[in-house]
Structures are given as C-alpha cells and as structure tokens.
C-alpha cells in the first residue's frame, strides 16, 4: 500500500477516477497547470489533457457548467478553492444542482463532485475561516462529506465521484500535508455514507467529523490516561448520515452523547445529531455540543483560539459529560 | 515641479515597498502568521491614484491592499500591529493582512473575496447621492476579478444610475498562479467597460504621474455628474501571489524584464542626474518602517477576552 499524505491521497483518488471514468472532468481555479493552490491536483493536467483545466475566477460558471455538463452525461469534479467562495455562487448548487433529479422525475441527474476545503488556520481572515458544512447539509438533494485522514479522503473522493448525485467534499487545508499514512488504493469504490469507530469506551459517545477529529482523539487519549474511556465515532458523511450507528453507540455508552465540530454551534449539524438521538430515545444524560463560539473568526491567532474549540476545551467538556 | 512630484512619489512608493519587504522578513521570522499578499511592483497605482481622493471619498481595495491603505494615510504602526495580531492594530487584529479597514482614512477596507468590493463602492457612491456629500468612490481590483460576475454587475449598476465610481483594475497579468490571457478571449479589459457605456482607458500603471492624471480626469467628471469610469493599470507584481508562492509559472526572463519597468526602478532612473538623493529617500522610508514595526512588535497581543466584542450593536 502506498504511503500518502492527505493531499497525496486525494490526488491518487482523482487520478484513479480520471483513469477509470472517461466521463470525468476536473477543473477549477489554478487546479491544472499550477496543480492547485494547495498542490492537491499536482500533475493531473499532464496526464489527462483537456479533461483537466484551469478556469477563470468565476465560481458561478464553474458550478453551473458542472451542472450542465453533468446533465449531459459528463461526471465533473470541480474545485471551489475555499468553501467561503461557494457563497458567491450558491444558486448553482442550491437552486440548480439539487433540483435536477427531483424536478425532472429522475430523467436527468447531476452527478458532480465539488471539492473544497474549509476551516481556520492560524492568521486566516474571517472570509477564509468558515466551516460551512451545515449550510450544505441543510439542502436536500446534495450529499456532503467531511473527511479527516488520507484513507478517509481517498475513499470519500472515490465514493463521491461514483455517486450519481451532487456531492460536496469538504477538506481542511491543515490536513493536506500532515503525516503520510498507508492508504489502500485498491478497493472498489464504496457506496456513499457510513461511519468509523475510532476508539471504544463506555463512558460516552463522541461524534465528530473533519479535522477536529484529531483533537477529539487527543482529548480522548488524555481522558483515557485518567481511566475515562469514551467511544469516538467519526461520521465523515453528513448526508447520508449514519444516525443508526450513533444511536446504537449512545445506547452502549450510558446514554451519553457529545458532538464536536469546528463550525459554530448555532445551526451546526451537531444540533441535528443530538435531536435525532433525543427522538430515538437513547439519551439519558444532558447532551453536549462542542463547536466554535457563535462569532466571526478574527485573523489574530490569539483571538481565534478563544473562539475555536481546542483540545483543552474538548477534554474538559467530555470529562464533565462522562461524570454526569 | 515634475521632479518634485516624482521625488515625492518615489518617497511614497518606497514607504510601501519598505513596508512590504518588512512583512517578508516578519513572515520569515515567524512573527507574521498566515497568508499575506504583497503589492511589491505595484506601488505606483496607490501613490498616483490616492492623491485624487479627498476627505469623504471612499476607497475599497482587495487583500493586496496594504499599499492603498498606506497611500490613504493609515499609520504604519497600526497597520503592522494589525498584521501582527496586536491590540493596537487598525482592527484590533480582527482583520489581519487580507481584510482590514481604516475608515478614518477613507479606506473602507480590503476584501478577501475576489470582486466583492466593487459593489461596495457602488453603494458608497449611491449613499453619496443621498447624503449630499458629493462623494466619489473607488473600487480597486485585479485583472482576474474581471471574470467574477459580481464585478460585471457592479459596473453595470453604476453605469445604469450614473453613479460616481472609479473602477481601477490593476492588471498584473496573473490571477493567483494563472495568466489572465489564458482566461479571456479578448484581453482588452477596458472594452468590457465601454460595452456598458463606461468610459475607460488602459494606461501604464507603473507611472504614478500617468495614473494620477488619468484618475484626476475621471474623478473630476464623476464629481460633476459624469458617472463611472474604468481605468486599467498595466503593472506587475515582482513577488509571488502570496508569501511562499515560488512562482514556478514565471520564467526568470519575465521577472527580470518586470524588474526593469517596475515603478521604483523607473522613477529612480528618471531622477538620476537631477540632484535628488534617491538612496536617502529609500533610507528614510526604511527607517520609518523599521521604527513602526518595532513599536508594533512591542505592542500587546490582542486580548482574547475581547474576541466576542463587536458582533452586534
Ligand atoms: C470569489 C473568490 N474566488 C477565488 C478566490 C481566490 N483568489 C484570491 S486572489 C485570486 C486571484 C485574483 O487575481 P486578480 O484579480 O488578478 O488580483 P491579484 O491577486 O493579481 O491582485 C483568487 C483566485 C477568492 N479570494 N474569492
Ligand atoms: Mg492579477
């Protein structure tokens, strides 16, 4: 199995899709010749000719042309460089892509994948720091995945591209050039959805997705050192979401549930996870939502750190939950 | 007279260059964190244009806006402090390199969303129509931003309502890592403006005097009810799109050629033999910048307890 960074894993998955699915296209700002501003799409342009190309800074046309090409039989993979930049072109996903299959009664489809990345990194400004997954998960007709590891990223990309509906893949740029890991690049593409138990313990179930999974695991390790073992259930797919796995796990962990995401708490997808657990009757303790404070994200790292959920805060809140 | 002007312009351009070069050093030393877009090579645009804006006018720039903020008179120390996450920054550290504002100086802000500022300028002009100020607004953006729908909408909006907006397009030939000419069929960007009924000119953006006289003409017309105008400034950045961009997409020959036409080199050679001590101009600028950076570095970091302030009225 090759050892790959997260970026390398995405690149390998894209390469495989371009090789195996002649109907795929890959385009976006700076993705071809420059290889992407984060280097994720490096060299793909060399090997796939005009199926991989750079575009103008025209997010509406990037997304809208992907919708149109998908309706006519292509399988576009397009990049929105920063999730924040989606916002200049949301019509093409929300009013357009999400409606194609439904309104045509299934005679048309929009099998497109949008790659993007999100979240704060030190010094990033308020317009380059948001976590917008809940906004897209709110929209019926779109699929959403937020991976956290090279394997996860590889598998998600493969599943997303093979999916016959529009999928948004949210990376987090701080993960791109982390440690290399062995990635199984040979398995057949899995259907979208599912979740992964990252560690087990009976004190509580902690549901999480995306880059913050790593902080959650760190916090869980610290708790384990004190004899508090929690289950960490990573749910990269937010649509479809593995509520069943959450409920089964919560039932095994004393009815205790925490959800952790980097996005701010109000309207975050954590709220939905908690309410579904409540409706399923599996909660016996006060559920905990951990996310960024409801605020804009300041550029100064010292200010941002105050608002974003760090390992210390996650540890403290989980400790309280486990003792509840 | 023109020599005096050129001397002053060179000094103003050196302040910007020295500021930006200091940022390179601070980024290298780890004191400046995050994505930083420098305007090294593009100093003539703000220096030429900003003298034609008066109190009450409104300027909207982009993430590559340090030079514009400086040319509008924003104090260097407060700018450094902003970029260094200090409490004394123009926005107390909230904005950072790519998204600060200094309205006290007519600088209504950078923007990190390509093209977003153009319609803010339209709104500033619209406000001027109703508040009796007679304000004109200036929107600065890059060549790549011309392909953003919001810019086209803003230009037509201003045109339809004869709003006094000067659209200033700094054409440095690249949008991030991609040449503008690969992303358009017609590289005459001014024709997009003229198609909308907006008078437009493409000029040498490395000549502050030329920038100034062009902006002055359009500004006078705008103040007299003449509506919007569009100026395309042909220029170049001598550095990467952001600090850390190694510019593999540019040849050494191209960078060398750019080095010959960049505004400081041109102004310096124009002043050769005039008796003006251009080294001293540079030295004064660097001294001012060093002192400001030192002060900012000694300022306290933004207080985490204030992180939630100012979200709502
Ligand atoms: C809506 C949007 N899309 C993409 C980006 C990413 N981005 C930032 S700067 C830039 C290039 C802009 O080029 P240009 O307008 O020529 O300005 P320059 O950087 O050359 O000054 C891009 C694509 C963004 N910030 N906003
Ligand atoms: Mg440009």
Describe the structure.
Chain A is an alpha/beta fold. Chain A has 2 domains: 3-182, Thiamin diphosphate (ThDP)-binding fold, Pyr/PP domains (Rossmann fold, 3-Layer(aba) Sandwich); 196-323, Rossmann fold (3-Layer(aba) Sandwich). Helices cover 36% and strands 19% of the residues of chain A. Chain A has helices at residues 6-20, 44-48, 59-71, 90-96, 100-103, 133-137, 150-162, 213-225, 243-252, 269-280, 301-307, 311-323; strands spanning 3-4, 24-28, 52-54, 75-80, 113-118, 143-145, 167-172, 181-182, 196-199, 205-208, 231-234, 237-239, 257-264, 288-292. In chain A, strands 3-2-4-5-7-6-12 form a 7-stranded mixed sheet, sandwiched between helices. The longest helix of chain A has 15 residues, at 6-20. Chain A is globular. Chain B has 313 residues and is α/β, with parallel strands linked by helices. Chain B has a single domain, classed as 3-Layer(aba) Sandwich (Rossmann fold), CATH 3.40.50.970. Helix content of chain B is 44%, strand content 10%. Chain B is globular and about 50 Å long. Chain B starts with a helix and ends in a 15-residue tail after the last helix. The model of chain B has no long low-confidence stretch (mean pLDDT 97). The interface between A and B is large, with 39 and 46 residues. The complex binds thiamine diphosphate (TPP) and magnesium ion (MG). Thiamine diphosphate (TPP) sits between chains B (64, 112-114, 141-145, 170, 172, 174-176, 241) and A (29, 57, 59, 81, 85, 88).
């Amino acid at each position: 199995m090759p050892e790959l960074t997260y970026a390398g894993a995405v690149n390998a998955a894209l390469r495989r899709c371009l090789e195996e699915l002649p109907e795929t296209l890959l385009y976006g700002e700076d993705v071809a010749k420059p290889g992407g501003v984060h280097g994720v799409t490096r060299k793909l342009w060399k090997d796939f000719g005009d199926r991989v190309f750079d575009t103008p800074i025209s997010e509406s046309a990037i997304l809208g042309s992907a919708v149109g090409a998908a309706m006519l039989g292509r399988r576009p993979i397009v990049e929105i460089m920063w999730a924040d930049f989606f916002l200049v072109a949301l019509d093409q996903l929300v009013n357009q892509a999400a409606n194609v299959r439904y309104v045509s009664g299934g005679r048309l489809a929009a099998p497109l994948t949008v790659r993007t990345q999100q979240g704060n990194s030190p010094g990033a400004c308020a317009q380059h720091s948001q976590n917008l997954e809940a906004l897209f998960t709110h929209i019926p007709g779109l699929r959403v995945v937020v991976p956290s590891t090279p394997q996860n990223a590889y598998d998600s990309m493969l599943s997303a591209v093979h999916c016959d509906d529009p999928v948004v893949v949210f990376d987090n740029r701080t993960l791109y050039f982390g440690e290399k890991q062995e990635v199984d690049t040979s398995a057949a593409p899995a259907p979208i959805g599912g979740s992964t138990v990252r560690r087990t313990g009976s004190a509580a179930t902690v549901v999480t997705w995306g880059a913050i999974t790593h902080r959650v695991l760190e916090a869980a390790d610290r708790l384990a050192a004190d004899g508090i073992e929690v289950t960490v259930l990573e749910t990269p797919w937010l649509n479809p979401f593995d509520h069943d796995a959450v409920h089964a796990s919560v039932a095994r962990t004393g009815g205790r549930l925490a959800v952790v995401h980097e996005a701010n708490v109000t309207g975050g997808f954590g709220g939905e996870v908690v309410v579904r657990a409540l409706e399923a009757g599996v909660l016996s303790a006060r559920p905990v939502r951990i996310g960024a404070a409801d605020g804009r994200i300041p550029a100064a790292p010292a200010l941002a750190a105050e608002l974003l959920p760090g390992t210390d805060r996650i540890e403290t809140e989980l400790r309280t939950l486990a003792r509840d | 007279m023109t020599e005096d002007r050129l001397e002053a312009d060179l000094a103003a351009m050196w302040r910007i260059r020295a500021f930006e070069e200091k940022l390179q050093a601070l980024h290298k030393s780890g004191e400046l964190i995050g994505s930083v877009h420098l305007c090294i090579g593009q100093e003539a645009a703000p220096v030429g244009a900003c003298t034609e804006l008066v109190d009450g006018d409104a300027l909207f720039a982009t993430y590559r806006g340090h030079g514009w903020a400086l040319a509008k008179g924003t104090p260097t120390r407060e700018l450094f402090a902003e970029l260094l996450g200090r409490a004394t920054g123009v926005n107390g550290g909230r904005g950072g390199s790519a998204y600060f504002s200094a309205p006290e100086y007519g600088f209504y802000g950078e923007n990190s969303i390509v093209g977003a500022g153009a319609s803010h300028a339209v709104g500033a002009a619209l406000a001027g129509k109703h508040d009796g100020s007679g304000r004109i607004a200036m929107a600065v953006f890059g060549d790549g931003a011309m392909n953003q729908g919001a810019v086209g909408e803003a230009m037509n909006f201003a045109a339809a309502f004869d709003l006094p907006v000067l659209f200033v397009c700094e054409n440095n030939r690249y949008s991030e890592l991609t040449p503008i000419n690969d992303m358009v069929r017609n590289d005459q960007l001014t024709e997009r403006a003229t198609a909308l009924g907006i008078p437009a000119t493409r000029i040498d953006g490395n000549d502050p005097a030329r920038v100034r006289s062009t902006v002055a003409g359009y500004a006078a017309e705008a103040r007299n009810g003449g509506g919007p105008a569009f100026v395309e400034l042909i220029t170049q950045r001598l550095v990467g799109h952001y600090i850390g961009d190694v510019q593999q997409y540019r040849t050494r020959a191209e960078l060398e050629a750019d080095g010959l036409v960049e505004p400081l080199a041109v102004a310096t050679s124009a002043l050769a033999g005039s008796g003006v001590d251009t080294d001293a101009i540079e030295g004064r600028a660097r001294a001012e910048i060093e002192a400001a950076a030192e002060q900012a570095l000694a300022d306290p970091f933004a207080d985490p307890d204030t992180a939630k302030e100012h979200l709502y009225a």
